[in-house]
Queue: 2 jobs
Job 1
Amino acid sequence: MPDALILRVGSWAHWRVAHPRFVRVGLGFPNLRPDIIFVIPSEARNLLLLFAGTIEFLGAPPNAEKTLPSPTPTGLRFENIDKRYGGLFALRRVSLEIAPGECVVLAGRNGSGKTTLLRVAARIVRPTSGKLSFPAATADSTSNNRPGYVAHTTMVYDELSAEENLVLFARLQNVAQPAARAEELLREVGLYDRRASLVRTFSRGMRQRIAIARALVHRPSVLLFDEPATGLDPLGISWLAKSLGDVHRSGCTVVMSLHGESEISALATRAVQLDAGSVVADTNSGASLHSILTFGGA
Amino acid sequence: MSLLSNTATLLGKELRTEFRSRELLTTTVVFILVVLILFSFAINPTAEESREFGPGLLWLAILFAASLMLQPCFLREQSNDTLSSLRLAVSDPFSIFLAKLIANTLFLLLTEILMLPLFAAFYNIAILPELHYLLLVLFLGSLGVSVVGTALSAISAQARMRELLLPLLLLPLLTPVLVVSATVSVSLLDREPVIQWKGIGFLAIFDLIFLTALWLFGEYLLEE
């Protein structure tokens, strides 16, 4: 193959045709168009790279989303996000920029779109339109942009033990030394003595602890919490506030939905209020934290 | 590589949870056993009739048992929203399907291997002479059932009337597998066994087509 041969690798998304299984590949020479364009399974592109003299990545380079061990602060950017379920708008043109290292509280009445926004941020729900991105603190940052997410449910397996659950999710996310990481987290959340117990035997507070440990297992740079204090007693809430504070101080960007003021809301550096799927108030736009957390009440 | 390592990790989880509870295996084994015994008592077939109809009954029992077994495949991921945590954790959602369909195929095969001696005894059919070919047909048939069933289980788990939806979708789609598997099995268990390579080829192609479709579009089945 001549040195001048250019292999242009772009994702379908780049070419405005969506299918994640294929990449569109262009073969060409400098200043010579049109290229020979063909479509290959994405797994095969590394093979083609062997034959190319020059490579231009038009879309994301291969393996751009590899999990990396240490978190570097990463922000969140929602751009005109819409989410519709049939004719019902769960989110309506939400645009929000969360800076790396912020601790943001999402407030709003039931059905205002907090959970949907968090699930979009966690990439569990695909928005109907709009764009979600994770801008890193620095241009060359290699932070892990797979967020940690704690939902209403534990998101762990009841039939597995606490340790088995954490090792499972650590392995799935290519965490180095999964057993050691699981042990470290079990000690952090105070469940080390119950590591061999099945999760189904846990109390509500213990379940919340294992849920948080699962979300932290891959050392995410963004943590999303959906009403983390639900069902916790005052001791549990104090523990959660301390843990969240530690996580935030370690450089994580934290976004959580809350109802009302509490020990946990005291950690917030910013609050955003949602109503009917839209952002209606933001402390960055002059609203007070207290008024947002009390939905404008006294 | 992450597809394979994630699949292996998830397969380990599927096997561990099942062998710990034995819910699916027990239900499937008991169901197939009951169906075979009931058919045997109800029809009381002669040796010739057994050869002619026995394999069909066996495959019908496998198919009904599979529709029971595949139902909880994705349904039990919903109680704690573990499907979302898996989707967050894996780099390729196909690994979730791959692990589940390998586990389902293994469970089905294990059930079939346990049932074969009983089937031979109840229907007075010699299965040993062509056992290796019979196992090949059982493998290809079970793989087809598992691939289609796993995909439909993902669809039906998010629907209303999910308990009814899976068999309603699954049984018509698997009719070709049932017909071909039963025909090939009848030929294999005949007095003068014949290997129907066309049938075996059909099963392999069926599996390949549905596996490719799942690889291409499976990701969309997991979306909310």
Note: Chain B has one domain: 2-221.
Job 2
Amino acid sequence: MKNAYDVVIVGAGPGGAMAAKVAGENGLKACLIERKTEISKIRRICTMIININEENFGEYITYRNKRFIFPHNGFTINYDGPMRNIYGFHIVTPDGTRFRLGDVPERDKDKAKVVGLMIDKGRLVQTMVDEAVANGVELFPNTNINNARKEADCVVVTDNRGNEYRGTFVIAADGVNSRIARKLGFNKERIFLGTYKDYCRIYEGANVPEEDALMFCMGWDCSISLAPEVVPGHFHVAAASYNVYQDLDAEIDGFMASEPYASWFKNAKEIGHRASCVSNIASPIQVPFKDNVLLVGDAGWMQETSITGAILPGWSAANAITEALIRGMINQEGVANYLTWWDKYLYQPHGKRLASSGGGEIKDFLSQDDINYLATLVPETQPGTMNFFLIMKTIGRAFAAVLPQISDERPDIMQRLMALRSVPKSVALAARCNQGCAIMS
Amino acid sequence: MVEIDKEKCSGCCGCVDHCPVAAINVINDEVIIDKELCMECLICTLVCPLKAPHEVAEA
């Protein structure tokens, strides 16, 4: 039987939209299926930042001539929307002390110094989808894919109205909670790492110092973060937790009532709660391929690959499928280029490490005073970066260097840090299971 | 019976993703529960950060 499409792409986020753009340019018979009607409206929490001028998944993205340029892989993405140069990643302690990776004075010394551009992600995705459609890709918005199955010569995905879409290949770009991954049995070997609930309120009129930074506030009962929006003068305050029973609304209220935050937001007006997000998090998949289905971005990963980490696999997967079709190799070997990319840039450097993480929750071991003390030990601003993996490495190195000092000055804190680190993986995972909801089947 | 409070719902689709029987769909950008399919397992009420899905008495 003849398949309806060379490739069926499920999910019009950055990964799926990129794959659709490439499928269109490469002349494939393709369709893009998305459950939202208004694709440009982003409803989930996202930092909306693209890493610039630094290595990320083997690529060095830059922005010139109204395009994001991916020179290592050799493609570009048009973008002519609003942008904001985000330079800092700051950890803010309960007393307001900041541990900084990058700061605005450092950024402004050299105008060429850009590590992260905040964008209107909806506009970026819409631009890619429009180009795909202009190149003949069929778009099915307002369509929920609820099932997927393998047949002898194709993969069939089914929507909420019972319509079937048959593809020689399927690209599952349906996000971190990918239903396709579940339906096709990708998750069987994965380890459940928790459920992460995330809620944010957007404000206008706040007066936040050093505002072009992402701020992670430590010492609270859940993760609290503050970040600017791409719209000037807009900020969001987010609360996130691995405990689904925690009341995030109340956590934000408590945080906002404390100083210095209460002063920062004294004259601010809440203008919405754009994003809220629930994610089922599992260990990364080693081989994102099964039965001619390719997982891209978060669908094969865990929270989260970032926009860059979705765009690159979307690009690579669609090109690999094109090559497989040309060579008549409708199998794993046909798309080997994609699997090699995934292994080299995602799984080997990051996936193996993430899959084996143990350790306890900071809030269970360190008090607000402990955290205030720790931040004073590294007053120097660390190099600015928006590469998540480099951020973690930088923080680790900075604090590893002051461990002897902590040991001397505050052996009690040292002891608690060691206890935090030595919570076995099995215990940490059991706690996450009790506080979350696994949807592995 | 489970219903979604439209005022609270942000459309993040967390409940859509978690529903074990795909009873929750996004139709015209609105999250809607199919009462015929719903098993009332209540996972949606647990995963929503905004408490939009909630249990109501049968009419």
Note: The mean pLDDT of chain A is 92.
